[in-house]
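Task: fold both queries, return tokens.
Query 1:
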Amino acid sequence: MSVEPLAGYTVGITAARRREEFGAALERRGAKVISAPAIRIVPLADDSKLREATEQCLRDPLDVVIATTGIGFRGWIEAADAWGTGEELVKAIGQATVLARGPKARGALRAAGLRETWSPESESSSEVLEYLISGDLEGKRIAVQLHGEPLPDMVQTLRMAGAEVIEVPVYRWVPPQDTAPLDRLVQAVRGGAVDAVAFTSAPAAASFLRAAREQGCSGVVRSALRGPVVPACVGPVTAGPLLAEGIPVIQPVRGRLGALIREIVEQVPLRRGISVPAAGHVLDVRGHSVVLDGTLMPLSSASMALLRELTTRPGHVVSRAELLKVTPGESGEHALEVAIGRLRIALGDPRIVQTVMKRGYRLAYEPERAGNHEGTRRY
């Protein structure tokens, strides 16, 4: 019976939307999932600004319409329908040059019977802006559908180029009502208790980093996200807040949830796992479990800490003092002997962990059998 690729790994997800679908997909691949929404999307409490912006769009012909998000564009059309101006708005947009920031915005446009004129490969607002300012914008009327936060750089640049810009606010991002799950995820990252954290929107990434600052552990969390914890982002826009903090991320070529899941399945075992031949067995050490000869064997946190320390330096003697440092709550040589005994029992073969009298313990590493099994941590 094959072991799922993410079995033994823990993945935190910060998504507000589609989190059940995302979490279920990771769990089907064996992951333990910690769900901690970092944001929530709420419609504007007072839609007078949206209605006023819509009326501005209908007052005179539009030259350009920028759809930045699928949910936002759909919300705009639905609001206009409720006011009885939906058809008129769709017609007005259809007569303009329509730009879609990414695939979700494209999908919302097409669902409304519209077609985009152009969409950037990068799904970046910056590339949309670059596309626009390459031409003459003097006197052009441009409607920009906002995506939860103002876009001051884009709006200011367009106005400086001579355009009349109509900002269309549809919804906004706010912190989750219950911040406890997010706070726990921040602490899990801080302590290296998760193997990866996934982000599907830039506001969620920014909110996660803000939560770390508010808890007074920003530096430690940033350090953890640079390794050993793997940050995974759905695309370059989402990655922006993390990259701005000097945190490298993994991301798929295409900004889709399915592609992000495949990237996590491929990259997390490479970066967080280590495979070592020992005493006639193959140990695949994962986040909170070990796969022994193809069988998943969950271990206690103390046993995992000991095994990870031994496999980090396979074949080398690790002193008792060093091993005691990685087993919180244990003190004294007798306690360490008991903990090693538990690890041996859990692994099912006491030969895997060897005692070196008066010195410490070593993994019964067999380099001659390493071949393709030899693993290296890739942090």
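Query 1 returned. Query 2:
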Amino acid sequence: MHKRFLAIPILIFFLGSGYAAIARGGDMGMKVQITPDKVEQGGVALIKISAACSLRSVQGDCNGESLLFFPDGRGSFASIIGIDLEQESGVRSLRIRGKTAGGKIIERSLSFRVLKKDFPVQRLTLPKGMVELNPKDLARVKREHATLMKVFNASPTKRQWKSGFEAPLHEPVISAFGLRRILNGEPRSPHTGVDLHAFMGEPVRASAAGTVVYTANQFFSGHSVFIDHGMGIVTMYFHLSKIEVKEGQRVLQGQEIGKAGDTGRATGPHLHWGIRIRGSRVDPMALLALFKPRTE
């Protein structure tokens, strides 16, 4: 059985031109909690940092990529990590450095493992015209993709959500995250969100407080809304019949942002709901699970 955390020796760091007091994590009771216990490809991990004494700030990185921490009440901090659905499984190294109210620096280094996930596979045989794009449509798709990459890779903003995230519709999932389609024998891009059952014109609501950063009528996704919630988290809502928000508009959790529909490449009314965390394609249901109340 793999151990979830592997202790690594702590080194003394120099900060600026002077020395900083360094303590091992255990010396001042720094606690690092990772939820859930098992993190899979396409999953989301919540990292909570606390200490015996109040922390003023926390910094860290995962495999060399900086983490974004936000205050989580009573001197503790938290960070949300997204594991892309095609990111390799294996061990991830965390380095955490906290600064106490008294100015001392305490550090911890540890590891967690990303598990491989077997996503479902769907094989379909369709008319050639439904699978291959003509040059004009292909050029449009490439332009739209370039624009979306700018949205997903924009510099993270401050945290805007409060208590967590919720589904934009209270309807069942009809197509799971990560579904890998093979059309006419050729592998296609995996499904990077979940499709929720929806009735035509049904209200679609913001998953959490945030700012509308992009709205568009796209080739594949039809009428689409993208909301930045801060800390690198962006949610998206596709195939809408109507968009009811504007770029730059602040929205509250549960606020109506559009009506469900079947615009774009859709065979019927439904909502494609997706989430990116600092560019990583993650399962929206995994993010919901982080904030779901636990039952004993």
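Both queries returned. Flag for query 2: The longest strand covers residues 90-100.
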